[in-house]
Structures are given as structure tokens and as C-alpha cells.
Amino acid sequence: MLIDKISLIDPPLEDVEFSDFSKHRIRLKILRLDRMNLEVGGNKIFKLKYNIEKIHKLGSPVVVSFGGAYSNHLRALAAVGRIYSFKTHGFVRGEIVRPLNPILKFCDQQGMELHAISREDYRLKSSEDFISRLRSQFRDFYILPEGGSNKEALLGCSEIPQFIPQVSQSKLRYIILACGTGLTLAGIVLGGSRLERTKVIGFSVLKAPGYLYREVTNYLALTKSRSPNEELISWQIEDDYHCGGYAKTNARLLEFVDNFMRETNLPIEPVYTGKMFYGLSQLLDRGAVPPDAEVVAIHTGGLHH
Ligand SMILES: *Cc1c(COP(=O)(O)O)cnc(C)c1O
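A: This is the predicted complex of the input protein with pyridoxal-5'-phosphate.
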């Protein structure tokens, strides 16, 4: 298979002890997508997998995508562009500040061409006008939406539950993850229907109440391949743990992340996985997760070495 060009290991499922959580008597396991590959690990590998195949089938046109100045998506795309020999263009929201930050520097080193676009143009990036400008610039191109979130990505992310065992010792199981576009969550919901007594909780990293619920609903409606009687596992979005908005932090979050890393030795960061575990701690304190439940946290990556 085409994806074999990247050396990937299966994501390990690790038991983690954290006193704040174990006092609520939950069993915590972490699915380490971040360990699959150091350059393109995390959920982005699942999001890109079938896009890579499609780009290859199309004869490797230039690939155009979008993101903020700290976009893990652009970073992963730049890496696969180099590995699979297709040209990548990253449109970066706002200014491109020099010297480049580590993410953009990595993109640049992988051969991605970076273009700054104003916040206004960024908002209009799906408009016919913007697309026709791209067409006059590149003629033939493959466009990947922000975060790499498209149908191919959905298919890729629906494979994530394969790495979660069917049987659980607990009566109830929660799969938790941090959500930006909500696509990874939608993929897990689609691919997880064989998992029994399981519920998916997505922690929004954005200050946009209700937004991710609508996005996930739309993604779930994209796939028609499902048989009509197949029941999806239940899911919900927690909108209250963004700590001020995307990439924003506060003292409580940072202290939590610090404590968590010190006690568990598990690397997390405050933009995505930190907010997920912080949100989980709040749900546990509120009694919203029953004792003796199993929690499978998806480590979506976000740390670069
Ligand atoms: C991109 C990313 C996410 C968000 O994934 P979505 O599919 O957009 O919800 C979560 N965690 C990390 C570390 C990411 O890089």
C-alpha cells in the first residue's frame, strides 16, 4: 500500500495512572497516535492517508491547503509532500513572521511554499472568487480544506477504533479526544459502531459554543455507505474547556498540564491534549463520568521533536 512509504507503528494503548483521576476510580488508557511516526504522527496521519492515495491517483498535482501559523496540519502535509514527492503550498492566515516559528520552519524545510493571506481572504478561501484566483496561479491543483478535513480524512479516521479492543473490563467506556474541526471525532464515531457500551466525548479547543456539534453532524451526514440500520455510538461535545479560545491558555490549565506531565511522564501540550485531560478532570469532579468506567483518551499528537 502507498502509505507504507512512511514507517508507521501501530499506535500503542498504554495504561496511565494519574492520582487526580484514579481517586475517581476510573481506568485510564491512552491510545498513542503520537507514537506512530515522529514527523507525521498524531491524528493527521489518518486524515492524510486516503488523501495521499487520491493525490497519487490524480498524477500528483500541486496540493494547496490552509492553516494558522502553528498548524499541525500544514506541518504534516509538508512532510508527506516531501516523502511522496508532490509540491505543497500552504496558505497561512495572517502574517508570516520571520524568523519562522518552528512549525513554519519545518514546513519550509520540507519544501512547502508558504503564502501569507489576510484574515479576510482566509475567511473567503472557499469562495468561487478565491478558487478561480488559485486556478490562474496553479492551473491544476488539489485542494485540502483547513485541518485536512474532507471525506478522505473521514475514511482514514474511521480506522482509529480498530486499535481499541472490543472487550473492555468495564461496564462503560468513554473515548475522549480534543476537537478542532471535529472531523477526527466524526471518523471515530463512524468506525466505532462495533464497540459496545461506548460513548465518545469531544473536548472543543475553540470558543464557539454549538459550532462543533453542527460540524460533526454535517460530517456524519457525508457518508452514505452506511447501511441504514447500523447504529452509531453516541457522542457529545464539551464546549466549556477551551480556556479562552484556540491556543489560549490560563493559569489553571497550565498548572494542570504541568502536574499531569510530571506525574505521568506523558508528553501533552496545552492547545489540544492538555485541554482534553483538563476537561476530563472537570467532568470527573462534577461526577459526570461514573466510577469504574474505562476512559480511552486519544493522544492526537501536537508535540514535535
Ligand atoms: C489537528 C489536531 C486536532 C484536531 O483534530 P480535528 O479532526 O480537526 O478535530 C487534535 N489534536 C491535535 C494534536 C491536532 O494536531
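DSSP finds eleven helices and ten strands in the chain. Residues 42-43, 72-73, 147, 149, 178-184, 272, 300-302 surround pyridoxal-5'-phosphate (CB under 6 Å).
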